[in-house]
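Supplementary Methods S3. Input chains for the assembly prediction are listed below.
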Amino acid sequence: MNLLEVKNVQKYFATQKAVDDISFTIEKGSIFGLLGPNGAGKTTLLRMITGIFYQDSGDITFQGKPFRALEDAANIGYMPEERGLYKKMKIGEQAIYLARLKGLSKTEATERVKEWFARFEMQSWWNKKVEDLSKGMSQKLQFVTTVLHKPSLIILDEPFSGLDPVNANLIKDEIFKLAKNGSTIIFSTHRMEQVEEICDHIILLNKGKKILDGTIRSVKQEFKDNVYQVGVSTRPEDLATYLFDVVEHQPDQLLIKLAHDSTPNDVLSYFIGKNIPITSFNEVMPSLNDIFIKLVEGTQAARQFQKI
Amino acid sequence: MNKIGLIIGREYFTRVKKKSFLLTTILVPLVILGFYVAIIAIAVKGGSDKQLIGIVDEGGIFSDSSIVVPGSTTSFKLIKNETENSFIPKYKSAGYSAFIYVPKIALDAPSGIVLHSTASASMSTLKTVRMLVNGAVQNKRLVAGGIDPVKFRAISAQVNVENTIDTNDGSKKGNTGVAYGFSLACGMLIYLMMIIYGTQVMRGVTEEKTNRIAEVVISSVKPFELMMGKIIGIGAVGLTQFAIWILLATAGTQLVPLLIPAAAGQGSMLTTFFQGLASLPLLKSGFYFLFYFLGGYLTYASLFAAVGSVVSEDQQEAQQLMFPILMPIILGFVIMMQAINEPNSSLAVFGSLFPLTSPIVMMGRITSEIPLWQVAASMLLLVGCFLFLTWITGKIYRTGILMYGKKPSWKEMLKWAFRKS
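Predicted structure tokens for the full assembly:
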């Protein structure tokens, strides 16, 4: 079942087609990656999904029904890229306040805040103010306030920026745990290695348009270059063949690019025929980073203002 | 609705719990009260500053050799066998703080009368001296004109006219001075509170915007709820402050007579003050004050909120945008000063009907009789203006609070304000 369906959504600003006819669906319980260069329209899209903006046209369906910002607010947790907390408010009070705004009762909110603070070892922060916290600490607090009310959809905009590896792992583990328990997570970032590690499904935006949509595996399949890594125990000489080109030649391994109509089996029989001992044979998949750069490169790096 | 209650609660309690709130609410009036107690105490005790002033009278206008002015601690002594120039070097060592020199004068155009002193004479001393010299010259003139000075004083004795205010529950002794002060204090209070609390609303909104907390909160409540929650919460802080002040003032009026028994006697300053206060329509004024404070605050707070939502951290931007809002407030204050003296002048009537100035100007007319239609029209206009402005500013706020970067132009803001949602 799809938790969220976005269909032909558009949002134009005075000088920008911020989101220009985007459609996608998110499966319940999945971790969904929303990628794109700066200014691609990610934040605008997220603001429409959280009900901060209303789309100019198109439909958003949430849990099978048309999305209604106020009713569905309790089921959505949003952690914006620019962190937002009251600097002068006590941390415990603040977490309870934000949870109650999402519709939790006071006792329930207090209970959950205590539970999460214990899990993240934040109990001693209760009576401190946000201005006393370091950037990483307030990041953790922000994450807690985002997931406190057990939303079915959690939207995280760059959740790891400013976190050290230990705390980043702590949050990463919580994200996995939340997804396992049925929450759906939208994860917006331009850190590709995190996306590969965490996400099931991704879409890539550029200039307000969707330019890529699929699971990580299918995307990689689509963009692979038929490059294989062959481990050899002796350095082979003279590998001239129509089956493949040697891309890189190292003492104990070769990087080869298969010709259009050859298969890995053809290559293997070629090596066997030549009596070259093979220690390993792997397909080299492109990294998301490579795909990202390939797709976005060539378009103007900075988004231009345009007339609508 | 439950959520707007939460927001109001947060805005209210975070402010009321602050130390600075307690400080300004309790300490400031205490300091003012202490100040007044001190003034009254000094006034009751009277000046202890005794001084002796000599008179070198070549004009022969004084007849007694020593003169005491009633109610003054200054006494005068006639100096014989001295001239102006001969006495100048001596009077200090002879124990005189100053001396009056009266040359030979023409009674119909006296000139050349001088008060010699080593330092600039105080206002009260000069006043006493002038009174004395005038009295003496007048006496001489009366005698020259063949009129008995004693008889003249009896004829020209002042007759007092007191103001009695007739209301349904009997007549009361009026006191114009107290009524004037009361109007001024009410107007001033509304003026100050509107600016102070309006600025607080603006700061709060800007803080939420620059901290990006607005984005988190607006994903759970409507922007309008966030704005109104803040405005109402801060308004409640203002009302709390008034309540504490009224309590303190009541306690103060009970306490002052205890602390300074002399001030509480019949006919004293304080008793006159309380009599004057009691003659005012206090209940009606209290209601007007509350209504116009709330109406004025709510009207301006929404404007301040809109300004807060379009500026960033840059305080200078805020100052620039605040200026057009402060203009009518200041104008209202100026008209109020007029309205106190002329409560039914056309300027006062206009000012108390125009909703951007009426909260302040109406205070200037509060102690006088205002035609009912004017009160009704003024109140309706104020409520209408509040609703209209909140509707408009709510739209500016909704857009502004999520916009970062450049400050929008007036044209853009107007476009936001009148855009259909």
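Chain A has two domains: 2-221, 225-284. The mean pLDDT of chain A is 85.
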